[in-house]
Specification:
The protein is α/β, with parallel strands linked by helices. The protein is built from seven helices and eight strands. It has helices spanning about 45-55, 55-60, 65-85, 85-95, 115-120, 150-155, 185-195; strands at about 10, 30-35, 95-100, 130, 135, 160, 170-180, 200-210. The strands form two sheets. The protein has a six-stranded mixed beta sheet, with helices on both faces. A two-stranded antiparallel ribbon has the order 5-6. It is globular. The mean pLDDT is about 95.
Length: about 210
């Protein structure tokens, strides 16, 4: 079952921002669904979508039938973005940048799912989608690691790819699948703001993590 696409994007406001401790009061962040922490994939349609999005390429190599589950999640996430994002904003004002995979290109588990979602969502909208960020080496994924990288450790291994001759548009939208602490967003924001100080940087998440579900 796929989660229902809401009528609008939800805003991380002063009440919800405190649940994502890396965020600050000035961050402009938006999300579509809520993902229940410490719950199985079958707890909710949103949990199932996120779980399927995160299926590893190596897992698909072992069990090719799982590819259809991942693709269905990518398709649905793209459809949600297409419905919820104003077309004029996408076509004229924004540059979309996916948070980089925890595994570098060439790693068996390098996963460009977010780039796929963005390209599918806005393929005919004159969108500016750029895979601008990368890690210098593979790192453990946060959702699998007992000892997660700190902000400074992640910042130290995150780089801007070869800069384009064309500067980004006025609003850079950093896109990730799940907002947990907000660390990955803040690292991406720091890297991009250092190179493009005139741009406004926002966050867009397919889901935000919630912890009070029973």
């Amino acid at each position: 079952m796929l989660p229902v696409i809401p009528e609008k994007l939800w805003v991380i406001d002063e009440c919800t921002a405190v649940e994502h401790f890396s965020l600050t009061a000035t961050d402009r962040c938006y999300y579509i669904w809520e993902y229940a922490a410490r719950r199985r994939f079958d707890f909710s349609p949103a949990n199932q979508l996120v779980t399927n999005l995160k299926i590893k390429p190596s897992a698909i190599a072992r069990a090719p039938g799982r590819a259809s589950h991942k693709q269905r999640a990518i398709d649905h996430a793209a459809e949600a973005l297409r419905r919820l994002m104003p077309r004029q904003f996408v076509a004229e004002r924004a540059t979309f940048v996916p948070v980089p995979s925890s595994k570098i290109a060439g790693d068996a588990d390098h996963d460009d799912r977010l780039l796929q979602v963005l390209r599918l969502a806005f393929h005919d909208w004159s969108a500016d989608v750029r895979d601008m960020l990368a890690l210098t080496h593979s790192t453990p994924a946060d959702h699998e690691a007992a000892d997660r990288l700190s902000f400074d450790e992640l910042l130290a291994v995150t780089r801007l790819r070869g800069e384009s001759a064309q500067p980004p548009r006025g609003v850079i939208v950093i896109v990730d699948d799940v907002l947990n602490s907000g660390k990955h967003f803040k690292v991406a924001q720091a890297v991009l703001a250092a190179s493009f100080p005139a741009a406004e940087v926002r966050g867009l998440f397919l889901a935000r993590c919630v912890r009070d579900c029973r």
